[in-house]
Write a structure and sequence with these properties.
It is a single chain. The chain is mostly helical. The chain has one domain. The protein is 59% helix and 0% strand. The chain is elongated and about 50 Å long. The protein starts with a helix and ends in a 16-residue tail after the last helix.
Length: 101
């Protein structure tokens, strides 16, 4: 695996930068795998952001929704670690979703 592929796989976990591996290394299975994981994580962050914004206004339990942010941070660092170690392991809970083929 080239350093370029590894760098692009790492960048895939930084929000919209999941597009970089798709555009700059479309032939790399490794970079594309992590681009898919990054895309799924990004979409999860967007959906959870909406849920948290709505959940904040619920009396008594609204503050508990903010703990969902911890989940996305853990998944981010786990995906980053997988890319750095050059392994293709799915993220827990959301890693089985395949958007990019």
């Amino acid at each position: 695996m080239s350093p370029k592929e590894k760098s692009l796989a790492i960048l895939a976990y930084f929000g919209p930068l999941f597009l970089l591996p798709i555009l700059l290394a479309p032939e790399s299975h490794f970079a594309k795998y992590h681009a898919n994981q990054g895309l799924v994580l990004f979409l999860t962050e967007v959906v959870l952001g909406i849920v948290i914004a709505i959940g904040r206004h619920l009396p008594l339990i609204g503050w508990t929704f903010q703990f969902l942010n911890v989940l996305t941070v853990i998944l981010f660092f786990l995906g980053l670690a997988h890319a750095i170690r050059e392994v293709e392991e799915p993220l827990p809970l959301i890693g089985g979703i395949e958007i990019l083929k």
